[in-house]
Design brief:
single chain, 232 residues, Rossmann fold, two-stranded antiparallel ribbon
Length: 232
């Protein structure tokens, strides 16, 4: 179980002389760390010169001792997502319960960014990959003051029955998933899009051909357009 402490990780901004007008918080996937997604920041910053990027490390080491995790997923099975909707919902509810401490850490991390850089929620986008997308949705959908947006790569919506009750001012969402993803099948994003749309949340989703459990150039392009639209 995560302990309440302060998140930290790599930071990127285009130039030390740039005026910081907004921020993107990038949440990595299971078994990685903040150095993973921060590699995308220079690509995004070409068109977002006044944006600062943060990629905090998840609080816990995985049970395998390699990489970090936002919550434990030792009970996870991709086949449940493909084959059994009720088992999928039950599985994601268990994940939701295990993710609450990390959500509090992410909320505190956002508050620190706001104080340090004189920003508001409307100036911040949460971006996640895989387990990081689950955390971005779990945290970003339920904040009282809405963020500028949420970008979710290759993820799923945890605890839909629990989280929908907490949503009051959701930000716009874009979901991106490869159709050849064998770790988190695209059915998870398709289901997430349906749940969010049913609850009047502005969401677009993109299922990319010939893409596995990774982020490709097409996905980066979709995310960049979303960032420009919602931050500038």
């Amino acid at each position: 179980m995560a302990t309440l402490n302060t998140l930290n990780g790599p930071i990127f901004k285009a130039s030390s002389h740039s005026k910081i007008e907004n921020a993107v918080v990038m949440l990595h996937g299971y078994g990685a760390d903040g150095n993973d997604l921060i590699q995308l920041a220079p690509i995004f910053s070409n068109d977002l010169p006044n944006t600062i990027f943060f990629s905090p490390n998840a609080p816990d080491i995985t049970s395998h001792g390699v990489g970090r995790q936002w919550f434990n997923i030792d009970f996870y099975s991709p086949e449940l997502i493909r084959n059994n909707k009720q088992e999928l919902i039950s599985l994601l509810s268990r994940m939701h319960n295990g993710a609450q401490n990390s959500s509090l850490l992410i909320e505190d991390f956002i508050e620190t960014i706001k104080i340090n850089y004189n920003l508001d929620n409307k100036d911040i986008v949460l971006m996640g990959f895989s387990q990081g997308t689950m955390m971005a949705m779990n945290t970003g959908l339920t904040l009282t003051n809405p963020l500028a947006g949420i970008v979710g790569f290759s993820g799923a919506l945890m605890g839909e029955n629990e989280i929908i009750k907490k949503i009051t001012h959701p930000p716009p969402v874009v979901l991106i998933h490869g159709n050849d993803d064998d770790l988190i099948p695209p059915e998870a994003t398709i289901h997430m899009q349906a749940v969010l749309s049913k609850n009047n949340i502005k969401v677009n989703h993109h299922i990319l051909s010939n893409v596995g459990h990774n982020i490709n150039e097409e996905g980066i392009s979709i995310a960049k357009k979303f960032l420009i639209k919602n931050l500038y």
